[in-house]
Amino acid sequence: MPHVTFIHGIANKPPAEDLLAIWCRALAEAGAPLSDLGVTSSIVYWADLMYASPDTDLTAHEGVLENTPQAIDASGGATAPVPATPEEAAFLAALRARLTSAGDAEVEAAAAAGASATAGGQGALERVPLPWFLKKPLMEVLLRDVHHYLFDTPFGPPGRPVVPIRATIRERFRTALAAVGANGPHVVVSHSMGTVIAYDCLKRLEGCARVDGLITIGSPLGLDEIQDQLQPGWSRADGFPHERVADRWFNLFDRLDPVCGFDPELANDYRRGGQDTVLDQAVMNSGAWRHSATKYLRQPAFVQALRSLLKR
Q1: Domain extent listing, the chain
Q2: Tens digits of per-residue pLDDT, 154-205?
Q3: For residues 149 and 140, what is the distance between their CA atoms, to the nearest angstrom?
């Protein structure tokens, strides 16, 4: 039977079963009801490694409410990562510079005042404009989650054990894929930071099962800083994860998505044998918060890509 394995991105999330139901409901509303199509699904969940308790505001993750940081993926609650090496410090500084040209004091003042991303004379220096009350928690969450995964940082939220983040998530990903039967196409759908995890495992993790197709949405994989941390394994000429992806890789992006908008197209960075292979597709999500997973899932281009890989 065909199967979809989802993996979520940055920030806190509802419990795994609720998040999976929300995403499947979004797909059904867009014209791809998985159960009616004879497709099973599961989710690789890792928010519990970063947060003490799951988000209980389920409606916020439907992609409807956007008026507060608590109602979007930039829900805050992350403490700034402390670099343990000069390499980590350089990585964090470079990634932060991608998100804003403002200093820490400017960010704090703008967020407290509710200023827009272009206020304070920044203007065109802000590549993806966002209100600061949204951009500040986004920066905190993104920097923490990406850093802890790529550098396998030992971490545990209050009341939970400290574990190596990358090693633990990798094992969850490997276990989830191994649990899927071989009858019918198997597609991985990944969002945000989940695209980095999916790529890392499918390209570099020994013992990880093969899948038939990969879909990335709102992916930061185009950033040089992240690509540098995916070596050995990644190269611009042969970065396609052909070791464990048998069919195609679709990448959907919104140019005003603050996570992927800085460098959203992946075909030129993840070639196969020197040839462009990734199928990049620009979409336009609604509202101010373009990074919402459910907004990507409702896109006709996403439904078409998923049906194509599932042979449905």
Answers
A1: 3-65+161-310, 69-155
A2: 999 999 999 999 999 999 999 999 999 878 899 999 999 999 999 999 999 9
A3: 14
Q: Which CATH superfamily is domain 3-65+161-310 in?
A: Alpha/Beta hydrolase fold, catalytic domain (3.40.50.1820)
Handedness of CA 181, 187, 192, 195 (dihedral sign): positive
List Cβ neighbours of 59 (8 Å cut-off, separation of 6 or more). 65
The side-by-side arrangement of strands in the sheet containing 279-282 is 40-44, 3-7, 186-191, 213-217, 249-253, 279-282
What's the predicted TM-score (pTM) here? 0.91
Q: Tokens 């992946």 belong to which residue? A: 266
What does the pLDDT look like over 255-269, one tens digit per residue? 989 899 889 999 999
Assess contact for 165 and 155: CB atoms under 8 A: yes
- What crossing angle do the helices spanning 132-150 and 86-99 adopt, rounded to 10°? 150
Which residues are CB-contacts of 277 (< 8 A; sequence separation ≥ 6)?
Answer: 240, 248, 249, 267, 270, 271
